């Protein structure tokens, strides 16, 4: 899979982000995307081939793997990375709309098309809410699919066509557990950063409106 588009998207959003937003971009790019591409993807690359059950009954191993791993971890995280980064496109599109509007009218309509104010502020806040919601959704979904954030060393399976309860072994469970905790922790960190940036922008806007009203009442 090529991650060039996601990398370019994050780089583009970085130009319009606040300080907290730039930290979020760094966390997503350095601690999630690069770790995923450089290490995690290789660890789960042959997860099906390395899943072994102590029986040779045709089809038993496949149905057991599908039961305990309904969605591949690596594809799940790939989808999560794409989905939580996509709302940032709203900001990029809004800035592009401002720039195209200025070109169409052939005059300066905004002091800075990339400045977070007015309609762009609303778009930015919506993108933060969407990113936070998607992060929480994927964490909850992962927890529900796998009954927690854990990688068991041994799973017992009694699903047909298995003739009885069989023991199935997952390869490199400790290594996978370490990366699982790391990726979950970075996802939680991104949630904290998004909520912090959301609070910061709302507080900043509230103070700005308050000072504006105070000046208006004095005049």
Automatic annotation (TrEMBL):
The keyword Transmembrane helix applies. Belongs to the connexin family. GO terms for biological process: cell-cell signaling. Residues 42-75 form the Connexin N-terminal domain. A connexon is composed of a hexamer of connexins. The lineage of its organism: Eukaryota, Metazoa, Chordata, Craniata, Vertebrata. One gap junction consists of a cluster of closely packed pairs of transmembrane channels, the connexons, through which materials of low MW diffuse from one cell to a neighboring cell. This is Gap junction protein. Its main location: other. It comes from the Eukaryota. One of its GO terms (molecular function) is gap junction channel activity. It is found in: Cell junction, Gap junction; Cell membrane. The chain crosses the membrane at residues 21-39, 76-97, 118-143, 178-203. The gene is Gjb7. SMART domains: CNX, Connexin_CCC. The keyword Nuclease does not apply. One of its GO terms (cellular component) is connexin complex. Residues 134-201 form the Connexin cysteine-rich domain.
């Amino acid at each position: 899979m090529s991650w060039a588009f996601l990398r370019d998207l994050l780089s583009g959003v970085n130009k319009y982000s606040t300080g907290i937003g730039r930290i979020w971009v760094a966390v997503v790019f350095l601690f999630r995307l690069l770790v995923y591409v450089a290490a995690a993807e290789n660890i789960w690359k042959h997860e099906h081939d390395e899943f072994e059950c102590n029986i040779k009954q045709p089809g038993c191993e496949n149905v057991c793997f599908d039961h305990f791993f309904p969605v591949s971890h690596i594809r799940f995280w790939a989808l999560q990375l794409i989905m939580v980064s996509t709302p940032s496109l709203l900001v990029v599109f809004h800035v592009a709309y401002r720039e195209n509007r200025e070109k169409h009218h052939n005059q300066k309509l905004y002091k800075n098309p990339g400045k977070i104010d007015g309609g762009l502020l609303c778009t930015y806040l919506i993108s933060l809410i969407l990113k936070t919601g998607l992060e929480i959704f994927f964490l909850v979904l992962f927890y529900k699919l796998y009954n927690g954030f854990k990688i068991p060393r041994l799973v017992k399976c009694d699903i047909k066509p298995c003739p009885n309860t069989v023991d199935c072994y997952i390869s490199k469970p400790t290594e996978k557990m370490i990366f699982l905790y790391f990726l979950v922790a970075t996802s939680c960190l991104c949630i904290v950063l998004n909520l912090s940036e959301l609070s910061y922008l709302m507080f900043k806007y509230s103070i700005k409106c308050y000072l504006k009203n105070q000046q208006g009442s004095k005049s």
